[in-house]
Amino acid sequence: MISNINIEGYRGLREFSLNKLGRVNLLVGANNCGKTSILEAIQILASAGDPLSLADGVIRRGERISDSIRRRNGISADHDLSHLFYGHEVAPGQEFTISTDEKCTLGGVTVHVQEINRLEHSRQSSLPFESGSDDALDAPAWALNVDWTHHDFPTFELPINSFGGVSFDSLRRYPRRRFETSIPVRHISTSGLSIEAVVQMFEDLVLTPEEGLAVDALRTIEPTIERLATVSANRRSSYPGERGGFVVKLTNFDQRVPIGSMGDGMWRMLGLALALVNAEGGILLVDEIDTGLHYTVMDQMWRLLSEGARKLSVQVFATTHSRDCYESLATIAHPDVSDGSEVTVQRIEAGRSSSVSFTEQEIVAAAERGMEVR
Amino acid sequence: MARRPHPKRLLVEGRREQFVIPHLIDGNGIPWGQRESPIVEIEEFNGVQNLLAAGAIEATFKSSGVTTVGVLVDADDDLDARWQAVRGRVISLFPNVPRQWPGTALIESNSGGQKLGVWIMPDNSTSGMIESFLQYLAPTSSEDLLDYARQVCVDVSARGAPFKDAHRAKAEIYTWLAWQDEPGRPLELAVKERILDPSSAQAASFVQWFRDLFEV
Q: Which CATH class is domain B8-128+198-214?
């Protein structure tokens, strides 16, 4: 478990630390204070520097180099990694560091921009920019050097073009075998999970002891659900926000019902439960966890999540703007626990270098008096 | 309903303090403000055990936007024990608060720019409660009457009056209030109507602590 994390120079976080973390951590704070950046930083650290995790946030945020800049400068790779760095610029010397304390096996990672060793890169055929994809056109300008602060992983370099651009293809083709010590990380963004991802997770789970958790999660919203199954129709659809791939059987209904007929909360709960199980032994990150959930099911959502997290050894980091969401967190917090809290609220404030961390006791005290923790 | 907390908060044991303090401050020429926008928000805890329950003071400091928190408690019969209980709640946020109660009102700042104030009724150095403090506000001209009220409370104890000794200061002030014009005004109205004098010298050090702490 991560109990402390320090982030320096990553996105808008010049220097920031989260302390006294627990198993279930809810991040609150104003818009643009860096909650999502913190989730991404945890993902990068826990993925042991997998280059795809570096770009995950970039892709999700749609940070791309514009067509006109790419045409004018004769470059093709368009995923813009410059925004990963405080100040939105890539130049040699720029770097960010994400680290935990000595006790945590995840250690720390520093990513810095450096001059590329062109000779070296022209000799290594396995590296990006070399084989027949689009970005073969781009001359690597700099390299992102990914360096482990207290691990003996080999340092690796990811070539980028002069605008900080990298192509998705090159990220995907980057050798992965170096990252075996990473722990499972599942990140549910504000827009939720795609049908393909959810179906995949369910099929990994089906006929295992954890299958019941998915059905239990849906029953928090619709108690008459008896079974959940995948269907082939729609499962590969990439229509944004589409719900499909699943049907449920309800008590007193002979017809099976598509999950898309049952409201956004169903989809959210299914995604949460499946991602939790798939993050066994690792980390679950959920941006705006309350999305689609009515306040009446929030207590049950937290109970399901915290019980599942304990059973499966998952550490959860979630964000919210919702009062119902953090007040309902008090229902799983123990009023007599301060040291070693399993449940924490972390308020992120612009201009502060560390979070304001609420223990279980303080979460309960604030909720009882209706104090504003956000 | 969660609310955006007032940045300046005074935490008190009960409704008596909540009602009396605004009149005491107002009576010293510091306008308390409208009901919905007071200069300081007073929160009462329905008992000192709730105010000093683990998490309550800490959560107040951690609520968003809170800059200053005053803690107003009664010494009752053990001032030092009361201070140790308060200290246990604030030490994580204000590591420099003294181990021994200094015998005067306390104001501390921390590295996060927040301020803590502690006042232990009646005067930070003797046992007692807010009713003991309010006895200081009885006009000098009424000292004999107040002494007589105290004597009466001793006498009635001998006759089987059931009030507890710990509540003697309450019995005394209500007895004295019963003999005023108009008789039996509630504490806060007695202050407002100057039956109890908010500008008495004895009240001045409390008012000064309040002004220094909340910067009003």
A: alpha beta
